[in-house]
Request: fold
Amino acid sequence: NTSVTGQELSDILRKTYHLQMEMASGSYVTAILTMMDTKEGMERLATALQEIDQNLSATSEKQLPLPGLKIHPKRVMEIYEAYQSKFEKVDLKEAVDRTAAEFVSLYPPGIPILVPGEVISERVLEIIQGYQERGYVVQGIDQGKLKVISILE
Reply:
């Protein structure tokens, strides 16, 4: 019940406590322990989590819903057609009403927000930006750019 995202928690663990996590998402962190980990290392992780927890304050801020449950972008071409089409990379704000040329997924768990061949709406962009602001990993976005079907095809 805090506003800290999984990615923020992972960053704190790495930068402050020198503990590298396996994976981070918007709402959780995964730590993998192996037979090579020491008791001291496990105690460091437990102590770090307790210290971090003591310094966090509760919030009533709601997490964004998982995209597959709330949005249904309009499909204008089949996935294979989109993959075979020429594409260009555009800034997110320029992608409205364009057609996705690549999967855009929330990772983990890998839920598609957009599938190649779907139209990119304002609402879809709001969801993508909301996830990014909250520390979620959104695959298919590269340095604020998204692959769309080229208009000059």
Summary: The chain has four helices and eight strands. The chain has a mean pLDDT of 86. The first strand starts at residue 23 and ends at 24. The radius of gyration is 19 Å.
